[in-house]
């Protein structure tokens, strides 16, 4: 018997619809399993952002989200060196589940994850220790206006592959730069050491670091007092960046849920950022009060 083409087309549509429904139910079931906890990918030794004791900014934000979702927060830790995303958010052995579902801090434009809307913008900062000849410096312009003979004697710490290198070159201060490895093979290394040990001990006279690092360790280091000067982007040197959260590509509903939390918990998020003294700036790089 010849089956009408319209019937065949309708049958294919219904079969496809049933298949899509089955896939949707399977995805929902998997999503339900995943949401028995807020599973966060983190670096275990990366203050001010995260650590095993859950003392970092991103740990606190995870707690905010966990409370809002009514879920416990769990962590999967891996040093934030090369291949961090591959070994955390995208790590899955055959027949096993992913160990974590969200990275709490990634720059906007980071293509290894599906990036949410940004939740803060910060900038690099120039940090110096008080009582060591730079107390009159109240801005980056003041720093650049120091007598040439004084500038040339300064040792300015910076991490490699950051805008600080371009800034020193632009202002003729390359010889004053003291480079440090951002991605050290030593898992005990953390970014704040540049301030907490090197600057505090007088091994360098100033440092240029990412704003959240500057704000946190300026608060944590009690002696000497550290002065933080947020830096404005200049032609050819960009210092300010928007930060977001990251989920796996293709997880649209989870990303939407995260973005809803970013909106509904905005005041709590801002309170955490200010508690950790993150230098916040607007889209033009101007400081937010």
TrEMBL record:
<dbReference type="InterPro" id="IPR022448">
    <property type="entry name" value="Quinoprotein_dehydrogenase"/>
</dbReference>
<feature type="signal peptide">
    <location>
        <begin position="1"/>
        <end position="29"/>
    </location>
</feature>
<protein>
    <submittedName>
        <fullName>Methanol oxidation protein</fullName>
    </submittedName>
</protein>
<feature type="domain" description="Solute-binding protein family 3/N-terminal">
    <location>
        <begin position="37"/>
        <end position="279"/>
    </location>
</feature>
<keyword id="KW-0732">Signal</keyword>
<dbReference type="InterPro" id="IPR001638">
    <property type="entry name" value="Solute-binding_3/MltF_N"/>
</dbReference>
């Amino acid at each position: 018997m010849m089956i009408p083409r319209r019937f065949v087309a309708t049958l294919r549509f219904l079969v496809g619809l049933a298949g899509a429904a089955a896939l949707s139910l399977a995805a929902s079931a998997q999503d339900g399993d995943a949401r028995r906890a807020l599973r966060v990918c983190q670096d275990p030794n990366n203050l001010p952002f995260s650590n095993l004791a859950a003392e970092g900014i991103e740990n606190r934000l995870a707690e905010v989200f966990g409370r809002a979702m009514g879920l416990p927060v769990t962590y999967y830790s891996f040093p934030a060196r090369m291949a961090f995303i591959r070994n955390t958010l995208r790590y899955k052995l055959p027949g096993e589940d992913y160990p974590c579902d969200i990275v709490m801090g990634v720059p906007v434009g980071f293509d290894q994850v599906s990036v949410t809307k940004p939740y803060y913008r910060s900038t690099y900062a120039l940090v110096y220790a008080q009582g060591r000849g730079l107390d009159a410096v109240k801005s980056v312009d003041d720093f650049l206006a120091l007598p040439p003979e004084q500038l040339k004697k300064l040792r300015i710490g910076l991490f490699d592959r950051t805008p600080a290198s371009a800034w020193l070159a632009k202002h003729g201060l390359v010889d004053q730069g003291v480079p440090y490895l951002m991605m050290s093979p030593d898992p005990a290394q953390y970014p704040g050491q540049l301030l907490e040990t090197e600057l505090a001990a007088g091994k360098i006279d100033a440092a240029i670091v990412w704003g959240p690092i500057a704000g946190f360790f300026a608060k944590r280091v009690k002696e000497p007092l550290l002065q933080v000067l947020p830096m404005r982007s200049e032609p050819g040197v960009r210092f300010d960046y928007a930060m977001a959260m990251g989920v796996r590509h293709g997880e649209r509903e989870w990303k939407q849920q995260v973005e809803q939390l970013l909106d509904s918990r905005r005041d709590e998020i801002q309170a955490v950022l200010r508690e950790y003294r993150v230098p916040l700036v607007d889209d033009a790089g101007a400081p937010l009060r």
